[in-house]
């Protein structure tokens, strides 16, 4: 994200931002709550993906975020840092 002003100021939920956000991180404004890689998805309450998806993409791990590409195959998104606005 080239500009931190692109982060919605009126949104109180969890947001995934690029790792480059760390260069602009302001601890008074945002709290870092996790990351999208590894097993942190389970820690955030994500349910494991259906096991049959592992046959389509063996690199997927339980609790990991994923999306379906244009061919209908599950893919891992780019790494993101999960943040939320401080009140």
If you had to describe this structure to a student in words, what would you say it looks like?
With 87 residues, the protein is α+β, with helices and mostly antiparallel strands. The strands form two sheets. A three-stranded antiparallel β-sheet has the order 1-5-2, with no helix packed on it. Strands 3-4 form a two-stranded antiparallel ribbon. Helix content is 10%, strand content 21%. The protein has helices at residues 40-43, 52-56; strands at residues 15-17, 30-35, 67-68, 74-75, 81-85. It is elongated.
What characteristics describe this protein?
21% strand; elongated; 87 residues; alpha+beta; two-stranded antiparallel sheet; three-stranded antiparallel beta sheet; single chain
Helices and strands in order:
Elements: E1 15-17, E2 30-35, H1 40-43, H2 52-56, E3 67-68, E4 74-75, E5 81-85
Antiparallel strand pairs: 1-5, 2-5, 3-4
Could you write a compact summary of the structure shown?
This protein is of the alpha+beta class and 87 residues long. The protein has two helices and five strands, in the order E-E-H-H-E-E-E.
